[in-house]
């Protein structure tokens, strides 16, 4: 396999952050690369910035915003590299990220997809703060990896930018343009079913910027809203016929129950709710439950009683009223919870990588 890497960056109306992302791409120690920016109908100065500051980048313009999956598919179609790397317009990577992933990929067993470490960070004023670093296990089974993508609250250890993708993967799979959320888990799962294995290696590092803005391009907000419903129904259809389906059953039931409890009675979800009920039963669900109940015994008993009496619709209405009564609202700074100031040598090293690009 050759060495050229095609870096596909999707963007929409975030020219300031996009410049930081592109600078870290061009600062990579891996030199044999092309940079493809897919613009999702930006209305800010994105195109002017690209023309003036990054004239060597190949720019693809969607006249109508079509979503991150469609943007990535356009990037794949335009790419000439032997390897593909996907990066959002608000994230960063270590200067040796591409080089170390390439080296680790060549050293990995046949049909392996290497995933490196990833770490959430946020910038508050002049401070950089971090969450812990996560990396996929080196020798995890395909079933355990798949269950990470299916269990609603599992700790993510794989991300689309923690992987340097062999071009050959995309002969068999494409990004699902009907998904505006969970689209990365979807392509990971279909890659595994195509015969690849995702293995973790301590190679490079992907820095995920957490902020009050959207995590992906804002296009297709309606699709993004219902994407969790579409994702679990899609994977129910994929996995139910398999002889090993029982190995995914608990994760699938937890996913279905989480969706039913959150979406029952919500108008935009109504076309999906009957299918979710059917899928829950098809996966062996008999009694409605809270996949992740509160620790307090009285609260647990109350919520389970509501489910037994009136089903997920009643539970959702009760929780919505309770939140409204308490005056709960999303704080614009909620995303900084759990982020710590650099304390260790690794923290300081990561801060030194990020600081020039903030």
Describe this structure in words.
Helix 1 runs parallel beside helix 2 (46-53), helix 5 packs antiparallel against helix 6 and helix 7 (221-239) packs antiparallel against helix 8 (249-263). With 358 residues, the protein is an alpha/beta fold. The chain is globular, with a radius of gyration of 21 Å. Strand 7 (118-124) and strand 8 (127-134) form a beta hairpin. The protein has helices spanning 15-26, 46-53, 68-78, 97-107, 142-150, 183-193, 221-239, 249-263, 273-282, 297-325, 345-354; strands at residues 5-11, 33-40, 58-62, 83-88, 92-93, 112-115, 118-124, 127-134, 165-166, 197-200, 206-209. It has eleven helices and eleven strands. The chain is 41% helix and 16% strand. The longest helix has 29 residues, at 297-325. Strands 3-2-1-4-9 form a five-stranded mixed β-sheet, sandwiched between helices. A four-stranded mixed β-sheet has the order 5-11-7-8. The protein folds into two domains: 5-219 and 342-357, Spore Coat Polysaccharide Biosynthesis Protein SpsA, Chain A (Alpha-Beta Complex), CATH 3.90.550.10; 242-325, no CATH class.
